[in-house]
Each structure stands twice: as structure tokens, then as C-alpha cells.
Design goal:
about 130 residues, alpha/beta, 2 helices, about 25% helix
């Protein structure tokens, strides 16, 4: 864990390379004299939207020059990560997306989803904090 879902319009970028760069950067981040997370812990997916209507205009292809079209990222983490660690993860994702795509970092929107007891369904039951 974490699970990272990137949503953007169609484009010709090498999505797999971008996602690998994000994961590698996360694995190489230091946190309090240790690594932020062990290798192979994160999972990235790239969800491509085939059309977005914004300001009553249809957009079917990503154009980094059209700043009004943001990139949305859903970041799913468990409570193992502290809030400052989640902040590092978000910063890494935003920076790598910006570096690899040419998208201005101010147009990257990241929503964090944290699996808290009472709000997670797993193993056929609502998780209450006791497995």
C-alpha cells in the first residue's frame, strides 16, 4: 500500500514509464533515517478519460498548454502512514507527474482516501479495527 490512480485525458505519453518513475522515487525517499516504504509496496494505475467537458467545451486529448484541464490522482493509503508521510507521498507524485509530463504542478489535484475502521469493507465485513 499505497494505491495510486492517475486520471487524465488521452495522450501519447509513456504512462508505464511515468508510473515506474513515481514508484521508484517513493521507494528511494528517506523518512526519519529510514526509507519511506519498502520496494514493491506501491501500485500505480493510469485511468484515461476519453472525453472531458469543461467550460462547456469538449476536450478529447490532453494538451499541457491548456492549463484549465487538471490531472486528478486518487491516493489510497492505510493508517500505517502518518500524515507527514502521506504529505511526502503526495509531493513525490505531484513532482514526478509534473517532471515527466510537462504539466504544471499547480494543475495536479490529489485526493487522499484513508481506510479507517468503520469505513472499510474487507473479508466480508465492515472492518471495525479488530481482525
Amino acid at each position: 500500500m499505497p494505491f495510486i490512480k492517475i486520471s487524465t485525458l488521452l495522450n501519447s505519453l509513456d504512462k508505464a514509464a511515468i508510473m515506474k518513475n513515481i514508484e521508484n522515487k517513493l521507494y528511494n525517499c528517506d523518512y526519519q533515517k529510514d526509507k519511506l516504504m519498502p520496494p514493491n509496496m506501491a501500485t500505480c494505475i493510469w485511468q484515461t478519460n476519453d472525453c472531458v467537458v469543461h467550460k462547456l467545451e469538449s476536450h478529447t486529448q490532453f494538451d499541457p498548454k491548456q492549463e484549465e484541464i487538471p490531472v486528478f490522482v486518487d491516493l489510497y493509503v492505510n493508517t500505517q502512514f502518518k500524515s507527514d508521510q502521506v504529505a511526502i507521498i503526495m509531493q513525490v507524485i505531484a513532482e514526478e507527474l509534473s517532471n515527466d509530463t510537462g504539466i504544471d504542478i499547480k494543475w495536479v489535484f490529489i485526493q487522499v482516501h484513508i481506510g479507517l475502521p468503520g469505513y472499510v469493507f474487507i473479508n466480508g465485513n465492515v472492518f471495525t479495527g479488530k481482525l
